[in-house]
Design brief:
single chain, 327 residues, alpha/beta, Rossmann fold, eight-stranded mixed sheet, three-stranded antiparallel sheet, 19% strand, globular, Methyltransf_11
């Protein structure tokens, strides 16, 4: 029933509507909670980063009843972003000290605790409600992890310098107030031969150049007066999300370099929402109001045998994934 509802929603979005729906689809909406009765909490404006993410998380505050349900949701959610689990694996960390920076309600901690055997497993998170949910979900699996509550304005971790082998951060660094401070702190705790894997929002994506540039702004008339990056920020995790940055891969690599990392772009994961929107590129290209950069991006797309979009040989999805090592 759940996947049928998702596919039905995507079909309606592809067909399109000339007016904005009451709740335009966001990344959270594209991956709904496992329970149909679990509602998204509406947010007042002007929330801090910590307050906002106390109200929102990737499981929409769902309480899992069993290990089987929890793992089924883990894999279902991975499958909503084609190639994500290959680009951001949770296996291969046996015997390592692992940190999930921005662990939310423990989604990827469950992955590491199930598919790796880390020597120590840490989760760092701003939201007290997400940490409570993470503890419950980890207990369900019998996974031992140390959870740390942080502060968005002071990204200081109570971990020794050079003590962590592997840092995972998925969908977090594009939400922080000071990405340089975060990267410098993560570099401090990472071992000299350690590595990081990071996912941030991708400017070279269908989401940015088709969903936001065309459907969000021109078809629905939402945020049409805003710069494209500002409109993007309102389209992803809710219109009141305090910070939602987006990066071209080369731009993010430069940010990493100035903070002492050598970053390699692994590629991007394509959301099923983006895959369903691909046919809209034709009317978008024909619309004279489209930004030139977005029109050129859409004209340059290629597609693989599954019908998934490629840009410069990489999937043109919203989740840009990188490996970082110390210089």
């Amino acid at each position: 029933m759940l996947i049928r509802r998702v596919l039905s929603r995507l079909k309606r979005m592809v067909v399109g509507t000339k007016t904005a729906p009451n709740q335009p689809p966001t990344i959270v909406d594209a991956v709904p909670a496992p329970s149909a009765s679990q509602a998204v909490v509406e947010s007042p404006g002007n929330l801090s980063v910590g307050e906002y993410w106390t109200r929102h998380n990737v499981t929409l505050h769902h309480a899992f009843a069993s290990r089987e349900e929890s793992l089924d949701y883990f894999w279902w959610r991975c499958d909503q972003y084609f190639s994500y689990i290959d680009l951001m694996p949770v296996s291969g960390c046996d015997g390592q000290v692992v940190l999930d920076f921005g662990c939310g309600p423990g989604h990827d901690l469950v992955g590491f605790g199930t598919y790796s055997k880390p020597a120590r497993l840490y989760g760092y998170e701003l939201s007290s409600s997400s940490l409570r949910e993470a503890r419950a979900r980890l207990a369900l699996h019998g996974i031992d992890a140390e959870l740390i509550q942080g502060d968005a304005d002071r990204p200081t971790l109570p971990l020794a310098t050079g003590s962590v082998d592997f840092i995972h951060s998925s969908g977090v660094l594009h939400h922080v107030p000071d990405i340089d401070a975060c990267l410098q702190e993560l570099r401090r705790i990472l071992k000299q031969d350690g590595r990081m894997q990071v996912m941030v929002y991708n400017q070279d994506s269908i989401w940015y150049h088709l969903y936001v540039a065309y459907q969000w702004r021109l078809v629905w008339g939402k945020d049409a007066a805003l710069p494209l990056k500002d409109a993007f920020a309102r389209s992803t995790d809710g219109e009141d999300c305090p910070i939602a940055n987006v990066y071209a891969p080369a731009e993010f690599i430069q940010i990493c370099a100035r903070n002492g990392f050598e970053a390699t772009y692994r590629g991007a994961a394509v959301s099923m929402h983006e895959a369903g929107l691909a046919p809209l590129r034709f009317p978008a290209i024909q619309d004279r109001r489209m930004p030139v950069e977005s029109r050129k991006f859409l004209l340059g797309l290629e597609f693989d045998s599954r019908g998934l979009p490629l840009h410069n040989g990489k999937y043109a999805g919203i989740d840009a994934c990188f490996e970082l090592r110390k210089k």
